[in-house]
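Continuing the series of single-chain predictions for the mutant panel. This is the parent chain; the variants come on the following pages.
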Amino acid sequence: MIQRLQTVYLLLAVACLAILFLADGAWTDAAASTYTWFVPVAMGLFGLAAAGGVTSVFLYKDRKRQRSLVALLQLVVLVGLLLKVVLSSLTGGFASISTDASFEYWVGFGAPVMAYLMFLMARRGIDKDIALIKSMDRLR
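Parent structure:
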């Protein structure tokens, strides 16, 4: 389980998504005050992706299911990130970046991007494992 590099990538993706729940400044922009449904929906999407990431660590024996779950998690993170970017741009949240953007504001946008990239790297590692198993089966 821990011997595989994609396990590390999956745990790093979960850590990136967990940072979103610790950073309060990531959820206090204009979109959060304008759209009351935005914060629970976005946190639910990112929480679902984090829980799925932990679950996919334990699917190491069924690689095809693990790959499909990681691809689904990539899609969930992408939907959450697009929701955050679109609603922030609609409310003019990007206009005040140069004046009062805090570190936690940037964490709100950077953490989902990093989580998406970590899920991508994990999926590539799973694909490499599947290809390795196929080549080993051919040699038998």
